[in-house]
């Protein structure tokens, strides 16, 4: 069943990419959801397609998406789709390349199937629980280095504020990408040693990426080191820390 769900997510992600590319760099209509949180007509078009296609194929699954009103019926389902139609909408609207479609199937609060697709960069990440993770069909692995000042972390500048750390922020090489899903994919493929975001994180941004990281041999938890749980009432986690097996515990130990 996992492989059938993986094929379904893969097909849906690729089609979502075709839909989104019709709007990309073509002056799509954009609205502000409040707090400088943009949403475009492409987000809605992709969301409509994904909800229609995925639930037509799996009518007994629940649905969680950034662009769909929450439906408590999801709590009655054995499995639930957790989807971000376009993760990195601000980058999408700006005509940048670093935005992604993030799709996951969650069972008993844990992601079991995942797909993250970056259409413009032609990067397709896939994972199944117990089946490993791939990038464009090639197996990927998270890094296994110890934490040092050479450690590369994907994180926003705000993370460096002293109050987030037990003492002072440790030395590391900071990088950034606008899409949370892509950051998790980059950790899974070993391009970076880890990523962290310390603000509350929406499930649709991180469900697929969390499975990618763990199936690539890394760890993904909330900022306190607790397991990530999905399809929750709040649909949020207390931040995300994802990294290789040696960097992750070092980060958790250093965080306040």
From TrEMBL:
It holds the Pfam family Inositol_P. Its cofactor is Mg(2+). The gene is suhB_1. It comes from the Bacteria. The keyword Coiled coil does not apply. Keywords: Hydrolase, Magnesium, Metal-binding. One of its GO terms (molecular function) is inositol monophosphate 1-phosphatase activity. This is Inositol-1-monophosphatase. Gene3D superfamilies: 3.40.190.80, Fructose-1,6-Bisphosphatase, subunit A, domain 1. Belongs to the inositol monophosphatase superfamily. Its EC number is 3.1.3.25. Mg(2+) binds at residues 66, 84, 86-87, 205. GO terms for biological process: inositol metabolic process; phosphatidylinositol phosphate biosynthetic process; signal transduction.
